[in-house]
Amino acid sequence: MKIILNINNQDYPLNVPVGERLLETLRRLGFFSVKYGGCEKGECGACAVLFDGRPVNSCTMFTAQAEGHKIQTVESLGEHPEQGWKRTQGLHIIQQAFVDTGAIQCGYCTPAMVLVSKALLDKNPSPSEEEIRDALSGVLCRCTGYVKPVQAVMRAAAIMRGEKVPPIGEPMDIGDLLDFDRSVPEDGAPMTSDGGTMTETRVFPKIKVVDARSPLKTVGHGEPKVDAVKLVQGKPAFAADFERRDMLVAKVLRSPHAHANIKHIDTSEAEALPGVAAILTWKDVPRVVYSTAGQSHPIPGPLDMFSLDKKVRFVGDKVAFVAAETAEIAEAALKLIKVEYEVLPAIIDPTKAMDEGAVVIHDEEEYVNFDESDPSRNLAAQIRVDIGDVEQGFLEAERIFEAEYVVPKVQQAHIEPHVVVTYWDEDDRLVIITSTQVPFHVRRQIAPVLGLPVKRIRVIKPRIGGGFGGKQEVQIEDVPAHLTIATGRPVIYEMTREEEFIGSRARHPMRIRLKTGVKKDGTITANEMYCLSDTGAYGCHALTVAGNTGHKAMALYVGDGPYRLQPNIRFYSDVVYTNTPPSGAFRGYGVPQGFWPVERHMETISKALGIDPIEFRLKNALRPGELHPFSTAWSEGREPRPEKVYTIGLEECVNQGRMAIDWDHKFGNAAWHTIPGSEHLRKGIGVALVMQGTAIPYLDMGGASIKMNDDGSFNLLVGATDLGTGSDTVLGQMAAETLGVRLEDILVYSSDTDFTPFDVGAYASSTTYISGTAVVKAAEKVAEQIRERAALMFAEMGDEVDHNEILLEDRKAIAPSGNSISMEEIALHALHASDQTQIMGVASHVSPVAPPPFAAQFAEVTVDIETGMVTVDKLVMAVDGGVIINPVTASGQVEGGMVQALGYAVSEEMVYDDLGRARERDLVDYHIFRSDEMPELTTIFVETYEHSHPYGAKAVAEIPLDGVAPAVGNAILDACGVSLHEIPALPEKIWKALTTSA
């Protein structure tokens, strides 16, 4: 039908299909700020536009309905202020506020947030925080925790009203706010931190510096993200924004059965459908066994998967690939494919996977074992770690505590679905543009699957709309790649939200038994954990995730006295196959599963012994200079190497966190636990101590190259993958600091397998530590060449200088005499004057150590004892991540991580019926937190200096996932006496426990 759309005050005469949605029309016209979240009901809000000034979700509206109305997208709001000789008004105030406050992480939902913020401020220039949160609540964000977007809107509103706002990049030592020497007031009034609220327009986080150091120019400052300006404008930066002429759309036929053999497939009717370009089944593609786990070589797990197989192993498994001219034709073709199945018995319950006589899920002869996997027993991996003498430790104990704990399967729920574009380039090389965390692993692993050598594959990683481990998987790249090979044409495959739930990856659900021996004085004598992990239908990440469950959570508490020298720890795990969607990598990577039982167990023990829960934990926790206990016994299937841990700011984290949440006033205070006038409500407070890891020693490697340009700027090429974490910015800051220039002089390009150096990718909290060290090494090589060139130039000026005495600072090379030469002059001299050379450096880094970050997580809750409903009121996290390179982006990581972990604690789970069918299939039934549902979030950094990193950094990306659930569980116990062993903490569980005990 012919219509005219008014978009950004311009009329577009169009001829559109009757059923086309406004989202599809806008993206076809090139308005790429309008994002597809895979949803069918508008629940994610990423596709929001302004419709006559009010926000609407364009995916829920037919294009024809928009005629006669004014449509506005974020492309109309603002642009870069300098465009050659042309000057513009720059970004809109709201856009600039989002850039300045660090409100942009992955940036996928940012355009929608900016638009709904504009609609709010147009109507109400002085909104309350509640009104801002209500306005933003229609746009889901999985990255930020909503703290900084709310601050951005408040900041923009203040600027638009003509008010002054405080600077963002100023450090704020928490000592300015918290006085640890003052005593509790005699009237018993709570002590507050005066600044932990969400409403501050001053967004620099609180920092307690433990290891003092000289201030630096760029490192340690809240520099805006290097990609923020393009993301806030909605520029075409994501995989689905890349257009190719004659591009086909791919769809996948998925299994309706949990376990079945495919007896016959008839694709003839589907192939005859006009517009269908290709249909592939297991008969058409090479039968190459591989693993989808995006990990190092060799992959530490079994090879148990095929692109397409004659057997399906879960509801949602891939059966056939279709490529067609449009998505609608491809969907119609799926319905015409006829499949005859031989349905087999299915295993849904992991406790029955290894039962005698259980059906074998992987009976293919091509299966390749790794370590202790055994498909005949449905065993994907097995771990047996003994440290010290556990049995003797239990004999020496005066009390023994045993319990079983359960953690659920949960989804990464990144707002950008998995999406891949493939095409043949002019040199007949296959180009794969993919939203992945591991581009180099993708290239290596997919090459044999496609029958191509690695050198004929180029993998490009654009911006990523969230990953959280879900994109640490070579999961769908084979689909469009096979179809491009079959048709010779470009192909795009973008998963729907339902496919994300039924055919993607998720966190491993586990059943964990814990046994701890203690003396009456609180000394732990032995710790034993058995973990039954459900890997689902395939063994991707089976061994390594389960290994982390013990490696991190069981390593924190070693005991006291002689047990520090020789702790007694046992960690056994069986990882089993079931006929459910595969589990995989999810931020935290097995560690949140481990800390739920460990920290709930510690609370039970301290309560039973009558010892303060914090005192009990610190008494037994790892201390500086001690061996990481697991370093002597386990290393992901490789030879372990003993490693001492030197930087542990855990005790200071406890001090800072307990003050910020006012622990000493609230814990044990009966009066605080009740709310006058609300007899059905009870307050509670809880704590959890956690540790994570920083990369994998002797394994994770990152590379970097830097070259100097004519104007004194630098190209920084890194294989590291920024998935919204801000790693491009952080790496750029370290390069700028080393070279004595500004961040804006560093042009960062990341993750193209043709042009950037190798990097393992974004996982294991490795980027700042591993890739950052590689960047600094490369920058030091460049700096050395700059000093040598400057010395030559000084000599030409009659100033003889030892190049080692030259200081690089403020974009200049400065001689001891005070004479200086600009970086631009040095670059021009090197490239054009004499002894011409390209100043550049290349370096890589592998670390022999993996210094853990530590954290203290505090939670405050309110429990309705009549219904069991839990409301989490406050979360405070104090983190020792070494020196924080960019406190604004790092605090955003902590805030977003705490909110993901909060869903794990109280609301998120994936459930399957007896036939293996998923209950949760969209973001309506699977509820992630909205902006108007947030507790108060406070982030505190305790800065230690980790000497194995050139700027003293450790990791912060994953540790926020570890402590929230157990801290909330402990707070629930404190509030109402219910000791949960299973999450999420749903009201019915608490109500049942309350009524049973009553």
Mind explaining what this structure looks like?
The chain has 998 residues and is an alpha+beta fold. Helix content is 27%, strand content 22%. It is built from 25 helices and 38 strands. The strands form nine sheets. It has a seven-stranded mixed sheet. Strands 12-14-10-21-18-19-20 form a seven-stranded mixed sheet, sandwiched between helices. α23 links the parallel β37 (870-880) and β38. α13 (542-553) runs parallel beside α15 (591-609). The N and C termini lie far apart (66 Å).
Structural class: alpha+beta
Ranges with pLDDT <50 over ≥5 residues?
Answer: 172-202
Total strands: 38
Q: Kindly estimate the percentage of residues that lie in beta strands according to DSSP.
A: 15-25%
Q: Report mean pLDDT, rounded to a whole number.
A: 94
- Please give the largest β-sheet: 7 strands, mixed
- Rg on CA atoms, Å: 28 Å
Quick one: overall form? globular
Question: What order do the strands of the largest sheet run in, or round the barrel if closed?
Answer: 8-9-38-37-36-28-27
Our measurement of the CA-to-CA distance between the termini, rounded to an integer number of angstroms, reads: 66 Å
- How helix-rich are the residues, as a percent range? 25-40%
* Count of individual helical segments: 25
